[in-house]
Amino acid sequence: MIFRKTIFDGILFAFLFSVAAVVVFVTSEEQLLNLGAVSVFVLVFFALGCGFSLLLKKQSVVTLGDVLFKTSPPTLADKAWYRRFWGWQLLLSLLVAFIVALKKTEFSFIEIFDENGFAGAVRLFKGLLHPNWDVLPRAVLNIVETVFMAFLATSLAIPAAFILSFFCAKNIMRGPWAQGIYFVLRTMLNITRSIEALIWAIIFSVWVGIGPFAGMLALMIHSIASLAKQYSEMVESVEEGPIEAIESTGANKLQTIWYAIVPQVLLPYISFTVYRWDINVRMATIIGLVGGGGIGTMLVQYQGQAMWREVGCIIAVIAVVVWALDLASAHIREALK
Description:
Blueprint: H1 2-25, H2 35-58, H3 64-69, H4 85-104, H5 109-112, H6 115-128, H7 136-167, H8 176-194, H9 197-208, H10 212-236, H11 240-248, H12 253-287, H13 295-304, H14 308-336
Helix pairs in contact: 1-2, 6-14, 7-10, 7-12, 7-14, 8-10, 9-10, 10-12, 11-12, 12-14, 13-14
């Protein structure tokens, strides 16, 4: 706990120190392009932040890390949170982060209410709100393709994620070799999941060609990584009693998993899987923008030609189908509880 508290405070203080250094010393963005020098400064600020956190700990000052990781006993001092050091630390960090976000996103009320830009937005919404229903048959055909693309991706991901989930659960992977396998698989799944399905769609569009097959493969890869993580967390949260009871009968590892763990996680597995299919349907409409097939490809074609009435029809079809599937999946998940 002390280690995690120190790391957390170190990162928070390093962020504040880095922002202060940029404000005081950096005069152009070119100075930040020297990644090596910037990395050294960030590491130095992190070390200083960790040292500052430990110094505050010696002075019995409660930091935000202490509060989050509960490393300090509760104080009897009757003070409001905003009158304590950790309260000011939280407020200052949020305020600085908000200011930096405004700066980096170039937020501007002037741009929002610019007359020319607003007039363009009005024309766009006028087209969207008056759809051209002539493209409805083609839109329906493409949304059916999108739904089944998501269905196949989810179906193919289930067995792989089911098997991987047990190899990614700490309470099953015990021992030096098992821990090594657990760490490697967890790392691979985290990397795979961190790459958005949109990027996978680009990769597979080059690999197998533009179309629904590339989109399906992208959704499948991302679904395997996401479902394996969710499944493994369910395995880690099972009760130990049934496991110990099955092991006491002399059952081997596979029998223990099948008779003690699978019955406990089966319903949550199904619920997560239904929810994942719902997510995949929504994601499938997006990956079509990069050649992943389905209605997304049709959408980007009309959007690129500024045919907003046709885009309005496609958006209406997507909205209805996503709403219907979301409602259906919600009822299914509720029934499985």
